[in-house]
Amino acid sequence: MGPFMRLKALLILAVALLGGALAAPASAQIEVDVNQGAIKPMPVAIPDFSGAQRGAEIAQVISGNLERSGLFQPLNVASVADKLMDVNVQPRFPDWQATGAQALVNGQVTVESDGRLRVDFRLWDVYAQQQLLGLQFTSTPENWRRVAHKISDAVYERLTGEKGYFDTRVAFVAESGGKLSRIKRLAIMDQDGANPQYLTDGSYIVMTPRFSSTSQEITYMALRPTGSSIYLFNLQTGRQETVGRFPGMVFAPRFSPDGGKVAFSVEKGGNSDIYVMDLRSRSSTRITTDPSIDTSPSFSPDGSKIVFNSDRGGQAQIYMMNADGSGVRRISFGGGRYTTPVWSPRGDFVAFTKQTGGEFHIGVMRTDGSDERLLTTSYLDEGPTWAPNGRVLMFFRESPGGSSKLWTVDVTGRILRPAPYPGAASDPAWSPLLD
Prior knowledge:
Helices cover about 10% and strands about 45% of the residues. By secondary structure, the protein is mainly β. It folds into 2 domains: about 5-160, Rossmann fold (3-Layer(aba) Sandwich), CATH 3.40.50.10070; about 170-430, Neuraminidase (6 Propeller). The strands form 7 sheets. Strands 1, 2, 3, 4, 5, 6 and 7 form a 7-stranded mixed beta sheet that branches. It has a 4-stranded antiparallel beta sheet with strand order 10-9-8-31, with no helix packed on it. A 4-stranded antiparallel beta sheet has the order 11-12-13-14, with no helix packed on it. Strand 9 and strand 10 form a beta hairpin. Helix 2 (about 55-70) packs across helix 4.
């Protein structure tokens, strides 16, 4: 049984607010305005956590998470005399002010009598000389990275006012081999690129993995010489099962918000329509009947509507409909082809791939089609997936003659970065926050 299957069995996280032993949180401290026109990263000091085990590694993971968000600038604090401070002692704030840090994160790792790790940390406003946050996490030793991600999320939320997204994983298609003999395996990793694992053996092609928003379960398309199938993969048990047999090629599956249904497309005779299957009864309902290509369904967060793309107007555009297939209306009207729409978990935007002028873009628009914004431009950008906080998107980018790579961009388009996975990859799918 692999580590990804033992996730809940191994991890016990206890979180407790540390009382006002040092300083009460202030009411108007530093914060990052994520909506300002030009974001200047906040300087933050994150010295190694004190203690016998994993203190340096935990601090490094926190630094990496915050730096990759584009909102924070972790500083080099090797020369600060106070860097080995006790977590229960107030910092010498002038030492930290001299570094230019606006925020300070310090912590301590303790090994409990049962072998578990207890990690205490505090977040400080350096110039106000006040504690902003104090938390304690307890975990099995092998899950120290998750503790670091939990701390990263807590710091991110306290300083931005938005939920973090670091204690998550990404499913994707790991690619290897030449163009004519490409091997595509289902893979998964932590959002920071750690702990990559292959979930299929490469004997068949895997496409479009999608996470459930309520559980650690993935649905994906498997393509074999005999045809295509849609699978469900439970990451905690390792169980894989098909959702049934259909007369034609099945593709583009995606869970409903409650995890109880899967929407997908079935192609037969050059026409494709969207179906929805109830996973409890395994009964399926065809919800589009237009003689065109209807595909890439994505539910609204409340499950009442579905966004999809269709060429019923002569070219691929984005359409909206009720979850039962009624009330179809087009929402995209710009030039070019629109594909792979996916509803934001916050419900405010639909992300999409757009092809126009010989280039590809990842873009977002409001759910009524207004406020369209193109966030990226390249030879080939495709397949956006939302982080669970609705602030960041991951997608894959391919250069001419090169391999596909994973990238991230925020909803403003200003923070564009390669994702920390070194190999060729496509079709990313972001998990919800882990339990």
